[in-house]
Structures are given as C-alpha cells and as structure tokens.
Amino acid sequence: MRIDIAGLRPELVAVVPSPLAELGMALHALSEPGHHPGLQGWVTGVTARLDPHLADRMCEADFLWRTTFSDLFLPYAGIPGTLPCATLAEELDLLDKLTDEQFVDAALEFTCAVGYGSCGPTALSDPEVRRRSLDLAAARGPRQLRFSERLLADPPRIRAWLRQFLQDCDEAFFAEAWSRLRHQLAADARHKTDLLRHRGLAEALAAVSPAVTLDEAAADIAVDKLGDGRTATGDKGLLLVPTSLGWPHLMVLHRYGWQPVLHYPVGSPELAAPPTLEQLALRMTALSHPVRMRMCRNLARSAYTTGELAQVHGMTAPEISRHLAVLKKAGLVTTRRRGRYVLHQLDVTVVARLGSEFLEGILR
Questions:
Q1: Are strands 261-265 and 238-243 parallel, antiparallel or unpaired?
Q2: pLDDT tens digit string along 236-272?
Q3: 3-state class (DSSP) for residue 29
C-alpha cells in the first residue's frame, strides 16, 4: 500500500484518536474474537451481558466491521478539512454529513462493487453497478442481501438505523471501554505528535509500525501489507488514528477522494502456544506458495466462495480450488454451505498458533 505525499506540508499531518473508529474495532473484536486473542476476557464479559436484541442487531450488518473495517467509521476522512472529534456523538454527526453516494459506497465496500481506489459510477446512479452489488451481496448471505437492498432503496433509513445502533452499543458497553482507553490513545497521539514536530515524519511513522516506511526522496509512504493500493495526500493532508482494540490490524484508508488515513494499533497482546512440529511442517508447506498466502488474507477477514476468490486473484476457479485443497488438508481452512454457495474461511485460531508475526502479517 503506497501513499504519495508529494507537497505534503508538516501542518497537514495530524495524530488524533477517534471514538467512532474505536467503536468499530470493538464491534470487530466482538464479531471476530479469533483475531484478538488478547481481548478474550473483555469479549467474554461484554458478550455475557449483552442484550439479546442488541446482539441480533449486531449480526444484521456485521460485514461492516467483520468482513472489513468500513470507512463509515472514519467519516471525517470524507469531509475536507475535518478531524476526528472528542466524543462519539460529534463523530456520528459527521457520519450524517456524508453524501448519500459516499455513505452507500462505503457501506457496500464489502461487496467490492465499485473501484475503491478510483472514481467510477456508483450503485445509486448506475443500474449495472447496482445489479452487481446485489449479486455479490447474495453470495455473502441473506442478511447481506437484505441490508444491501434496503440501503439502495432508502439510504436515509439505513443511516438512521446505523446511528441508533451505534448509540445503543455505546450505552451497552462502549462508553465504559472508551472512558478507560481514551487516555492511552491520547497519550500515544501526544507522543507521535511530539515526534512529528521534533524529529520529523520518518521517525513518527517508524514509531507507528515497522511495517510503515518513508522514502523521502520519492515522497512516498509504503505500508507492508498483503494487499495493493495507492492514494495521495494532495492538499487533503494525512491523518494517523491510533487504536487500542485493533491489534494486529494496520489499515490504510485509500478511498478515492477521501483523506488518506493510517489506522494503527497500540500494543500487542501475547498469542497462544505453537502447534506440534508435524502440524507446523504441514501448515508451513501449505503456506509456502505466495498465492495461498494472499488467499489467506482474504479468508482471514471473511468467508469467500471459490468464484469470488477467482475474481479477486485473477485466476480460474479450478486453480483456486487446487490451492484451497492444500490449505484444507493442512487444517487451515474451513468450509460450509449456505444455500447454493460454498463458503471457505481461514481458521484464525489455528493460524494464531503459527506465531504472532505470521498472524500480524496476514491481518495487517
């Protein structure tokens, strides 16, 4: 992932915590606890006391925080000259300021319906994009399809639903967590800001993550991830947002027309014990192929059909099936059927036993 920073002025780089982004990571951790073994105690406690009705609603649109981390949790990036706010209520107001096109495109990101890093027709304005969005949503399941249909039919209604849901989550569990986490995040933001002012952008980025490097000669920031993308700061600036709940996810918002954002983790909990030597040898052999490594990145975030993987990787379905067979033989991938679709997903609990560096690499 690359960020072109040509002409970026120092005063346009900001490090600011975001309560809405942290609430998004809280929802992700509750939906995918295997990604965050260090949060098992917190996840168990929240889940045990969660109202069943709220838990059901949490599943209704979980692809916004489970499959991927939706840009809807970073709305300030879509509004020129805007930074994260001190309170969740203020950031929910920013979410309301996104245009219907921005809101719908960000909400449909999980379907890969439009070119994320480029300008193109939207599902609200183009019937073909709309049809493809719904087809891809159907492959993900009936909930995703129903949500997408309602979203495209009535964006304001879904905005209201999402805002009320996030407010209910705040009351149920997040306000308590944020009162504890915001001090750590504010301290980290002060530290990174001090590095920016006194030692420069390269030092600040190195402190964010060893996976983030600055090439000053090329005016380019490289983020080492198992994914591709490019964006530019232009006159919009660069925003760094710390997260306490997000390790090991290091994310780059590179949506076309939005301000680039580095959403980076603070801290790294310990993982479980390694597997046996026999299991390790089998699994590492399965992961020795670069295509299978890249497939693992997709499968760690969500269940995919063979056809979806073929489209993402530019390969044929038989080629993808052969790679999936190797991963399944090693016990790294699980398969389930939903109607006429067969879905494959990485067993993150098993992958965690391979070691923190590998898990961080595919989830980064």
A1: parallel
A2: 999 999 999 998 899 999 998 899 999 999 975 443 4
A3: helix
Question: Is the Cβ–Cβ distance between 151 and 104 less than 8 Å?
Answer: yes
pLDDT of residue 275: 52
Give the number of other CB atoms < 10 A from CB of residue 121.
13
Q: How far apart are CA 59 and CA 41, in angstroms?
A: 21
Six-digit token pair at 39? Answer: 């949060």
Write the DSSP symbol of residue 220: E
Q: What is the mean pLDDT of the chain?
A: 89
Taking the C-alpha atoms of residue 212 and residue 216, their distance in angstroms, rounded to an integer, is 13
The residues near 57 (Cβ < 8 Å, ≥ 6 apart) are 165, 168
Q: Which residues, including other chains, have CB under 8 Å from residue 7's CB and lie 6 or more apart?
A: 219, 233, 234, 235
Q: Are 49 and 117 in contact (CB under 8 A)?
A: no
Burial class (CB in 10 A: 0-12, 13-18, 19+), 364: buried
Task: Work out whether the CA dihedral 282, 284, 285, 286 comes out positive or negative.
Answer: positive
For residue range 35-91, list pLDDT tens digits in order. Answer: 888 888 899 999 989 999 999 999 888 889 987 789 999 999 999 999 999 999 999
Structure tokens, 303: 């269940």
Phi, psi for 55 (deg, rounded to 5): -60, -40
SS (H, E, C) 305-329: CHHHHHHHHCCCHHHHHHHHHHHHH
Least confident of 214-218, 344-348, 357-361: 357-361
Q: Which token pair is 228?
A: 């591709």
**pLDDT tens digits for 87-98?**
999 999 999 999
pTM greater than the 0.85 cutoff: no
Domains and CATH numbers, the chain: 2-265 (no CATH), 277-363 (1.10.10.10)
What distances in angstroms separate CA 36 from CA 101, 271, 312, 325, one per listed residue?
33, 9, 26, 27
Helix, strand, coil distribution of the chain in percent, nearest 5: 55, 10, 30
CB atoms closer than 10 angstroms to residue 115: 13
